[in-house]
C-alpha cells in the first residue's frame, strides 16, 4: 500500500545556517496514529511544518499519495485542505475575536457557502466538546479550550491528516485525558494523526507507529508494540524505556508475568497482576 505521506532524504537548514532536518526518510500510513518521539530540538516541529507545506525542503522530496508536493499557491491550498496543522501554542493560530469566526475562517477561504460553513463549524465544535461555545470571545477561554478551538478550526476543513505539535504541552492531567480521548475518536473516524511528543509513555500507549528523531535525523520507525526491541534507538533519541515495559520486564523476570506479552500501559500491567490467582485465606499469589 502506498503511504499517505512520504519523506525521501529531506534536509532543511534555517536562515542562520543551522540544520533543522538531516536527510530524513519517513513514511506515514493512512488511518494510523503516528508519534514523532524525541528530545527538545530533535527536529519534530520542523518535520511537521514540512508535512503541511509551511516549510519547504532544501534537499530531498515529499510525496502525497505517491505524487510529489506541489508548492504552487493552488497546490499548497489543496494540500492544507487535506493536511491540517495545530500549533503547540494556540495563540499562534487563533486570529478572530469569536470562537465561531475563528473556526469558520478556513472553510470560508475554501469558498464554501454560508450554510455549509455553519454546519461545519457546529460539527467541529461538537467534535471537540465545545458545543455552544461559538459566540464566546476567544480571549475568555482557558488554555485547554483554546487548544480545542484550534483543533476545531482544522477539523472544519475536513482534513484527511491532522498534525499536532506537542498537543499535551501546557495541559493538566484531566485536560490531557480529554484531549487523548478526542484524538482516539478522530482516529476511530478514519483521520490519520501525526503528533510530536517527548513523552515516551504517552507515545507508547497511544500510537500505532513511533518514529524516533535525534539531531534532525529520523533514526528509526517501529510499530509501538515492538518498541522494546529498539532500545538503542530510544537511547539515541534521548528516551528511556516506557514504564509499562520496564515494569512488565521486571515482573516477568521474577516469574510473576509471562515474558513477551508486552502491555500497552501501566494499567494493563496492573490488570494482569490482578488476574493472577491468590490464596483465599492468605491473599498470597499462587505461582
User: Shape, please?
Assistant: globular
For this structure, what is the CATH homologous superfamily of the largest domain?
P-loop containing nucleotide triphosphate hydrolases
CATH hierarchy, class of the largest domain: Alpha Beta
Structural class by SSE content:
alpha/beta
Keywords for this entry:
287 residues; alpha/beta; Rossmann fold; 2 domains; six-stranded mixed β-sheet; 10 strands
Describe this structure in words.
With 287 residues, this protein is of the alpha/beta class. It folds into 2 domains: 5-241, Rossmann fold (3-Layer(aba) Sandwich), CATH 3.40.50; 242-277, no CATH class. 37% of the residues lie in helices and 21% in strands. It contains 10 helices and 10 strands. It has helices at 44-51, 73-82, 99-109, 114-127, 143-155, 173-188, 200-206, 231-236, 243-253, 266-274; strands spanning 5-13, 19-28, 33-37, 59-64, 67-68, 83-86, 161-165, 192-197, 209-214, 217-223. Strands 6-7-8-3-9-10 form a 6-stranded mixed beta sheet, with helices on both faces. Strand 7 (161-165), helix 6 (173-188) and strand 8 form a beta-alpha-beta unit. It starts with a strand and ends in a 13-residue tail after the last helix.
Briefly summarize what is shown.
With 287 residues, this protein is α/β, with parallel strands linked by helices. It contains ten helices and ten strands. The protein has helices at residues 44-51, 73-82, 99-109, 114-127, 143-155, 173-188, 200-206, 231-236, 243-253, 266-274, and strands spanning 5-13, 19-28, 33-37, 59-64, 67-68, 83-86, 161-165, 192-197, 209-214, 217-223.
